[in-house]
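Example 549, ligand iron/sulfur cluster.
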Amino acid sequence: MHPALSVIFFTVTSGAGYGLLLLLGSARLSGIAPEISSNQTLFAGIVGLVLVTLGLLSSTLHLANPKNAWRSFARFKTSWLSREAVFAILFYPICLVWLAVVWAVGNSTLSLVLGLFVAVMSIVILVCTAMIYASLKTIRQWNNPLTTVNFILLGLLLGSLILLLMLHQQNIVVSRLIVISVFLISLSALTKIIYFVWIGQPAGPTINTALGFTRATVRILDVGHSSDTFLNKEFGYEVARARLIWLRCLCVLLAFVVPAFLVSGVIGEVGFIHLIAAAFSAYVGVFVERWLFFAEARHVVNLYHGRQQT
Amino acid sequence: MKLGLVIDLDTCVGCHACAVACKQWNTSGTTGPLSDYQPYGEEPSGVWFNRIRHYEVGDYPTNKTINAPMSCMHCDDAACVTVCPTGASYKREEDGIVLVDQSKCMGCNLCSWACPYGARELDEEAGVMKKCTLCVDRIYDENLPEEERKPACVLTCPSHARFFGDFDDPQSEVSSLVRERGGYAMMPELGYQPVNKYLPPRQRPKAPTVAAKQSEDSGGLIAKWLKRQKDAFNQLGEG
Ligand code: SF4
Ligand code: SF4
């Protein structure tokens, strides 16, 4: 698949925002940061909303006809993209009411309940975004449960690192959040590595089943067009093997290894520099991860263009 | 009704006439124009509803060229429709034709990702998704003579490799062709239940090879003479 930067930026940045708001909404109840003050919640909440909004704005850059974007609420019943759009819009009033209550009333039962509601909405939206890709039977690299798991985990991972940075700056004890971050880093690294190994196994339709000649070899003689078509440009993207391996290593290094070392205090006591470097490194690493997610996905239409399997 | 096409891979010669006829008809049809990008430039490209690809099936000396024209299969279980967030893509109840409402499409490309057959192409100029309409704007047109109420590709095919009809009617031409010739769907394992079917190449007797001919030529003079008499006698019998 052609890795469109607008969509990569959208899934990574909005994912980080929802991950942040999920942790923040449940921060008092889950004991991540029970002593967080209302002003600190407000500040972190606004940062989360800004991330979400930047991502959503970027996603509209991908549309060829954005003036019809409002129509995307129409097929809530069947379309994951529609569900994502509906929930993303519903999220704003709920999140704003929560922040308003936090600001006006401070820490109260009401803000606790609303915060939980925001946390649940965040995870629902992360699932919807992932399911847009995971529901496509045409791309076996996406059509599996690991896609959803990775989207949620990586959103949470980025969210936790950003939250860590902000809370540390405001002199809140973050030892619990550090444990959670390290746990998220290990878990998402594990699932991502399983994913890399898993998509290496040949599976799914072949050029033979694509054309219905299952008892003979099939080779392309001519694709029938002389210059690139929509199908080539959208689905024909290929990454060279050497570059792929290099990028996978870079992704694992930046998204997991570097942040893990930085926040776990292995290299000196955890300070501002450590945390900002960890968040930045993870963001770039997840960006590379998402680029690979698209670039490594092979649509079955490539079989008709001569690929033996996907 | 379940309207669709049957395409005969045995007789298709791969001339691309169907694709050209399709482009010609549909560029001024309901979902036209089918935009071209730099049509006279270095890299001419554009929107097509129908594309023909050419394959070699089997290994020498039992290989064969197969030309495979592909357009929307008007799938029974069309994921392109279910993934569409705006409701622009829809499948008609009455005849099963899958269409895009150009005025609702937001150009997100998701339906084209969901289609296994490469049947949907974004018109970059118009910013909306376009696809085969099964010539919905001519198959019901009562101003046309009855025999012309067929998709443009079917009418134009010079080797008569394309058939149009109702798959719900077991007596229709398309249903009988599928029955008699073993018509099949492409990539059935994805479960889209494509309506369009393809007819496999016919089994033909093997053409005599040089080796076989030599063995026929060998044998003594008397054996050859006897064989000639026998052949002549048989021909007499056929009158
Ligand atoms: S279907 Fe007919 S027009 Fe199309 S390529 Fe085959 S022979 Fe040519
Ligand atoms: S061939 Fe593709 S575009 Fe046509 S109905 Fe099937 S999935 Fe949809």
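Summary: Helices of chain B lie at 17-27, 79-83, 110-114, 136-139, 152-156, 173-181, 210-217, 221-238.
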